[in-house]
Amino acid sequence: MRGIYLTVATLLLVFFIPNYSIADSLFLYSTPASAGMGGAFGSIANDNSAIIINPAGISATKRYGAALGYLYTNPYTGSRIESSVVDSTTSQLGAGFGYYRDSYKVSSLSIQRNTYALALSMGEPGIFSAGVTGRMDHFIQGLSGQSETLGYGVIFSPGVSFLNLSIAGLNLTRIRGTREQLPSRLIDAGISMFLHGVLTIAFDAVKNLDVNTTKNIDYHAGGELVLVNQIAFRGGYAWEEAENTKTFSGGIAWKAPRFTIAYTYVGDVQNQKNNTQLVAFTLYPF
Q1: C-alpha span between 89 and 129 (Å, rounded)
Q2: Of the candidates 203, 207, 239, 240, which has an alpha carbon nearest to the alpha carbon of residue 222?
Q3: Is residue 182 predicted with pLDDT exceeding 50?
Q4: N or C: which end of the chain has fewer CB within 10 A?
Q5: Which CATH number belongs to the domain containing residue 253 in this structure?
Q6: 29 pLDDT band (50/70/90 cuts)?
Q7: What is the DSSP pairing of strand 109-124 with strand 94-106?
């Protein structure tokens, strides 16, 4: 129980770009690590992005991590301030709790939103873990009112330590809210491979249940190479089928024993003016 109290008592700020289909795919890029790997992070989820991308990731890796970050995205003239905490070390029940603040534009409409989320997870690292995330969005400019949803996720290793499989449902259960307020319902299926402790390769396919076309699946691929156990280089590619957009990403991180500093750039293949940049500092005090 002490772990739950610690995380609930800690304030988080994580950004979520809006409830339109193209913007919700950027929502997968919630940290430099997930963005740097092109959004192919559902089966890894080993940083604070697990709170939303796949809550099962909180228990998949035993850790206590507190993160501060900033994001700027040109397509939506949007920004995010992020602080987040996950704790899976002080009890069998891993947890993450958050308050979220973001600002962005859709067409000529300027929107500001506060988002709150609580993620809970249980499992055995390297074998199987499962989790659930409760999310509430409160709009304070551009839109009014609030919405509430639940998301779910699992991660498992099918008998081998170097392979992870996952499936996550983001915002699947809608409790309250209008169409304009509610984030899209997404199904994310992922696979990742860890080779020799230095190379990670991952692939994700994300289906948007709220896009009424036959082309409603986004594809993500990425990798991470770690040198001398400290310097991580990341790269990725994403194709959003519904919007026919293609993005590439590249990032670098310094992984010290007690902290990580990371930066990622995400560019639009078809429009060089569209880009997203993320920077984050994560502290591992225990």
Answers
A1: 14
A2: 203
A3: yes
A4: N
A5: 2.40.160.60
A6: low
A7: antiparallel
